[in-house]
Design a protein that fits this description.
single chain; about 210 residues; mainly alpha; 6 helices; globular
Length: about 210
Amino acid sequence: MFDDFAKDNLHGRLRRDRKALLWKLDGLSEYDARRPLTATGTNLLGLVKHVATVEARYFGEVFDRPSSEPLPRWQDSDGSDLWAAENETRDQIVGFYRRTWEHSDATITALPLAAPGHVPWWPEPYSNTNLFAIMVHVLGESIRHAGHADILREGLDGRTGLRAEHEKQIDEEARAAHRAKIEQAARSAARIKGLDRQPPTTPSVTTSLPM
């Protein structure tokens, strides 16, 4: 009974965060969906591609239920799952993610939480594991990258939220006042601690393609 409860809750959260991650692409131009938004190149479409690859491997190879999606050998991983090549369309990557959901869901439904699995890219003795541990691991990956997507999208156009139906209209004045209050608190704390120095100016993010 508890196993069913645990599986249903983990699975429900995974489904929720999958949708949240995809929603972060909603309404973006092709450029903004793909462009690097951090010093290390993190980008929104790449996050979707990466999480899809993670799910395909963990709910596929680990339980000897390989996905039908073409995946490179894990030994040959080169970071190409973290960004979209120019010949990869958004529809292709989103479709890959959605098909992976179906495969993952079938694995989760078919196996008990104690079902044994083997992760060859994990060190011993952790490589021998079970479905419960893999569900927790993949959920952690999904939550982490959905959080990355939250910040990236907010930096692009200010849109925030977990789900489309809960999104609120942006109040620019209220946001500016709230940010100014936090900035003032930070500056005051720095002065109190004798660390008073001019903080760097935060660069703005433009959503337009450079000429």
